[in-house]
Design brief:
With 380 residues, the chain is α+β, with helices and mostly antiparallel strands. The protein has eight helices and 19 strands. It is elongated and about 85 Å long.
Length: 380
């Protein structure tokens, strides 16, 4: 092993475990690069520092004890099959983790799923779009589609951003990730909404939730450029999704992980009702707009100045309230990256009031006599 690469970049201490059989020049190079060299007893029969098919090796049990003496209580090992087999044989492995990457590899000297018709290196491998993953007894059934080269480039970038994300908690924050384009509307014979998405399909799986204009829908299948979701009658009745047409733009947001940033407010994706844009005026001082929206009186009581409301899935701060209206201030960024920039007077918008207000009203119901509005549309 040479004394170059990330192991020797100085960002963390580097310890090289070897035997007395290591060439002195190599040991000197490791130490010159800032690494500590730990000389271990050899493994296997004999004392020449070799084991197996003549390859040098260290006594892993001795090394584990030495690391324990340094306060190392847990060790993540990434290596080849010989190292893994040695750890297993020595009884030093207490947990195994497999990662199955959505890559189709194979080729001369590296047979795989595609035999010699694939790629011989990971860098050249064709990435796949995972559509579904199911457990069948002890096995996993994975359905995937080949990606185009452009999609592969986008997936590589997205995978690095999403490495720490999770969708265990299915809620949003009203911070729109992107806009999509309606490919198929649910207003026809089949209550199915298909949307072209700008992010790689690897960011979604069948069964995941995604908010479309603030309405939480469940992904039921993938199309060549996005996803499709079934929309139930209750959702069509309470939302404006049924009036979407192919080519319309929609706001999209995937669920935020429980440990993610709550950039807006807690948005469930349960549409409470529809509003209508009453007027748009330039904001005082320029650089944005003030929008006044009509709201049903039974929902207006949950809206307060400086409180939060989701309009077409966008988390907004309430600027003013009336008996049957509220107003919000839209900054240029919101106008540019969401569909609110294209909403005109008379257009319908989907509304979700702050769920905390409904819980407070529900708790106070025995004393106030007001019954909380708990209805909402959700495409499940």
């Amino acid at each position: 092993m040479g004394a170059t690469g990330r192991l020797f970049d100085g960002e963390a201490p580097t310890l090289v475990a070897t035997t007395a059989a290591a060439p002195p020049a190599a040991r000197a190079a490791w130490e010159a690069a800032g690494a500590e060299v730990l000389v271990c007893p050899p493994s296997g029969p004999g004392t020449d520092g070799r084991s197996g098919a003549g390859a040098p090796g260290v006594d892993l049990g001795w090394l584990a004890a030495a690391l324990g003496g340094r306060g190392v209580l847990e060790l993540l090992v990434e290596g080849g099959p010989r190292l893994h087999a040695s750890l297993w044989a020595a009884g030093l492995a207490d947990r195994l983790v497999w990662y199955l990457a959505p890559l189709a590899i194979g080729g001369d000297g590296a047979p795989g799923l595609l035999g010699d018709g694939g790629a011989a290196t990971l860098a050249a491998a064709r990435r796949l779009r995972i559509a579904s993953v199911d457990r069948l007894g002890p096995d996993l059934r994975i359905v995937a589609y080949p990606s185009s080269r452009d999609e592969q480039s986008s997936q590589d970038e997205q995978s690095s951003q999403d490495e720490q994300s999770s969708q265990d908690e299915q809620s949003s924050t009203g911070i729109v990730e992107a806009q999509g384009t309606v490919l198929e509307s649910p207003g026809g014979a089949r209550a199915r909404l298909a949307v072209d998405v700008p992010w790689p399909a690897g960011g979604l799986a069948v069964g995941d939730s995604v908010a479309v204009n603030g309405c939480c829908l469940t992904v039921t299948e993938f199309t060549r450029s996005g996803f499709a979701a079934d929309v139930v009658a209750e959702t069509l009745r309470r939302t404006a999704l049924g009036r979407l047409a192919p080519g319309d733009r929609v706001n999209l947001e995937r669920p935020v992980a429980a440990d993610g940033r709550l950039g807006g407010h807690l948005v469930q994706g349960h549409v409470d009702g529809l509003g209508r844009v009453l007027e748009r005026t330039p904001a005082p001082g320029g650089g944005g707009e003030e929008v006044r929206v009509a709201i049903a009186p039974e929902l207006a009581r949950y809206v307060v100045v400086k409180g939060s409301i989701a309009v077409d899935g966008v988390s907004l701060t309430v600027a003013g309230v009336g008996p049957d209206w509220f107003s919000v201030a839209l900054v240029p960024h919101t106008l540019a990256v969401t569909t609110l920039g294209a909403r005109r007077q008379g257009d319908e918008v989907q509304l979700e009031v702050d769920v905390l207000a409904k819980y407070v009203e529900r708790l106070l119901e025995p004393w106030t006599g007001h019954r909380a509005c708990m209805a909402g549309g959700r495409g499940r």
